[in-house]
Amino acid sequence: MADALEDRLKVLIVESLALEDVDPQSIETDAPLFGEGLGLDSIDALELALAIHSEFGVRTKENDEKNREYYHSVKSLAEFIRSEQAKASSPAP
Amino acid sequence: MAITLGLHALLAPIGSLMFAVLYVVWRGDPVRRARRMQAITAWSYRVMHRWLTVFGVTSLDLQKSLAELPDGPCVVVANHPTLMDVTALLGLLGGASTVAKPDLFERRSLRPLLHGAGVIRGTGSDPLSAQRVVDDATAALAAGFRLVIFPEGTRSPRDALLPFGRAAFEIACRARVPVVSVTITCAPLWLSKDRPFLDPPHPTPVLNLRTLAVDDPARVDYDSRALRQVVEARFRNWMRLGRPHSPTPIHEDESPWPMPSKTA
Fold first, then answer.
1. Please, are residues B212 and B182 in contact by the beta-carbon 8 Å criterion?
2. Considering the domain boundaries, does residue B18 fall inside one?
3. A62 and B166 in contact by Cβ < 8 A?
4. A4-89: CATH homologous superfamily?
């Protein structure tokens, strides 16, 4: 059973990128978002990053080599968001 | 072919050295330097295509190509069947900014030319690096340059088109400049993905570049998705119709654009 965060991300992808012909439930959690998977492009990535910041309060840094891993799939994006939210909620040393 | 390879081997290092010197000499105003270096490369490309035609390596008609180009800045999008179309297009335009793969910027011999001529470093592995590309490209357009982008992102497959990316159209919408669609054919095909340099075809490949359409993004309310859809559909229609190489008027009932009212 898919996690609620993954489901919210699928809806966010469809709504923020105006993918009118895509059912959020049809997006595979492990499938690549770019290229041969969902077929998103670099401008979609920018818009998705803005939507994630607005929805989850998580900002994606530009020129971070790990962005490719974070934005690989719904699953990797959800792991990235959980990790950033955990960092934000943990008390400062 | 031997003459071509010999001239390349002789002239390439001289060209690299010349651009390295000009890069330093013209360091005062980067926009002026880019304009001058683009003009020099465009002239060099025209000369190159002239002698390629003279030696029967390839054929390009420099006089009949690319009519009705806007005078000011614009985004030129084209299919990309062969490596030769880059030099042909830049030569015919008389200079333009382009987006190049980041790997090219790692080559020391090319760096002065790429930086000096205002070539924009393309997106790397970071999907969010598109923001930098869009910013750099809109700045180049604001400075009055034309911008050439191959929206497929790589060379086209034989007799086909890859899906168009949205970057070129997003840039045009943000900069509020027209998109010029240029169709390119090379027959027989050479320097494509499946026809390498050392396997030249016979007869001599003929390059044809033609203006297919000029689209104002205002007509789709600066929506880059809609703009891409319209331009890509027109390219696919051109390819489906057997690639007639003359500007094809879009009839009102076929137009993907909302046509202006006749009474307006």
1. yes
2. yes
3. no
4. ACP-like (1.10.1200.10)
